[in-house]
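Please, does this match?
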Amino acid sequence: MIRGIRGATTVSENKAEDIHQATKHLLIDVAEKNDILPEDIVSVLISVTPDLTAAFPAKGMRLIDGWTYVPVMCTTEIPVPNALEKCIRVMVTAQTDLKQKDVTHIYHREAKQLRPDLVK
């Protein structure tokens, strides 16, 4: 089965290193909590809020051992008034035997407020 696995995190500043590291740690957590290997991943979509312009978050994904050939696309979130700032969101599409209700979606830092119903 192919499933979508959501995740989000925030950074405190619009700095390249912060964006790269936050993305890296988020994706490692998504993979570990869902027992996903790079070979299981179909693609990764990463979005950032309009206030994050210092770097492409995909570079953070490329810092993970074994993720060199994982297809990735970056985009900007819709600038909704009063939305969470400095936020990085991911959608990992992967092959897994997990049932949809058993997928662990990952929310770090201030992004936990986005989906408190899914935070474990």
Summary: The beta strands are 2-10, 41-48, 72-76, 87-95, 106-107. The chain has a mean pLDDT of 94. The chain has one domain: 2-113.
